[in-house]
Design goal:
This protein is α/β, with parallel strands linked by helices. It is built from eleven helices and ten strands. A six-stranded mixed sheet has the order 6-7-8-3-9-10, with helices on both faces. A four-stranded antiparallel sheet has the order 2-1-4-5, covered by helices on one side.
Length: 280
């Protein structure tokens, strides 16, 4: 597996239009993602986030431009697509769009067996992932009978079992209760600790500001702005264009700094916990 390239993903002049739509979902999009980064993708509905993710996984083939994984363009052959889907896994916003096997165990086994793993290797890996995610209590149940939070965990297990280099999560906390949102976020932290590049679409500005290494703001199929969280989140003009607000901690920090309640020395706090530690 080639890993000598700084950029794990490169998108060059990507354009894509859905049938019947005059306006393209992606419009000459250019973007590079460094290996091992945590990248939050933000923007309004229809900004192109999900379409971009589908192009990275080979599910959608751009009308123009190309996607490179570790410096190699995606090959739209059966072998090429199997390779890219082993290396770049995607967890859809709606788990029901992803899950189809009779039982949870069969569901998680499908992908790794489809990649050519022998049964013993697949069994060992599936059981390892089931233990890691704490889903052994419902591994024999039908996937369609699970709760929304349980389905999301199984969808993540589907991808994790294949040891991807890149994990894409499209609105992972959508429709989840607070308990399962917390569980999913802990799993995401474990992924990044293992060196997996994580791309996440989210509308939660506060979470993105504290979590991400970089934030990508998308608008009308293009990258409106990409940079470190503070660089992006302090830019009121681009946030307004994408109907987003500054993170609460950043707004509060600015007000408290004006009133002399916190020191202006050091880095800007990215979470409420960090802000509390800065109180004079």
């Amino acid at each position: 597996m080639k890993q000598n390239n700084e950029w794990v993903i490169e998108a060059e002049h990507l354009s894509y239009a859905y049938d019947g739509n005059e306006k393209p979902a992606l419009d000459d999009l250019n973007l590079k993602i460094r290996r091992g980064q945590k990248v939050a993708f933000m923007g309004g509905n229809g900004s192109g986030k999900s379409t971009f993710f589908l192009c990275l996984n080979g599910i959608r083939r751009p009308g123009k431009g190309r996607v490179l994984i570790d410096g190699t363009p995606i090959a739209y052959t059966r072998k090429g697509l199997l390779d890219v889907r082993r290396r770049v896994g995607i967890v859809f916003q709606e788990p029901d769009d992803q899950l189809f096997s009779a039982s949870v165990y069969q569901e998680i086994s499908f992908g790794i067996l489809n990649l050519g793993a022998d049964e013993e290797t697949a069994r060992n890996k599936v059981e390892q992932v089931i233990r890691e995610l704490g889903i052994s209590s419902f591994q024999d149940r039908p996937a369609h009978a699970l709760s929304g939070g349980q389905k999301k965990l199984v969808a993540i297990a589907d991808i994790l079992v294949m040891d991807p280099e890149v994990m894409i999560l499209d609105e992972p906390a959508a429709s989840l209760d607070p308990k399962h949102t917390k569980i999913v976020r802990k799993i995401v932290e474990k992924l990044t600790e293992r060196g997996i590049t994580v791309l996440m679409a989210t509308h939660d500005m506060d979470y993105a500001f504290g979590w991400a290494d970089e934030i990508v703001l998308m608008h009308e199929g293009r990258v409106l702005k990409k940079g470190m969280p503070l660089e992006v989140c302090a830019d009121r003009k681009v946030l307004e264009k994408t109907n987003l607000e500054m993170p609460a901690v950043l707004r509060l920090y600015e007000k408290m700094k004006e009133k002399g309640m916190v020191s202006s020395q050091g880095e800007v706090p990215r979470t409420m916990e960090e802000l509390e530690r800065r109180l004079l």
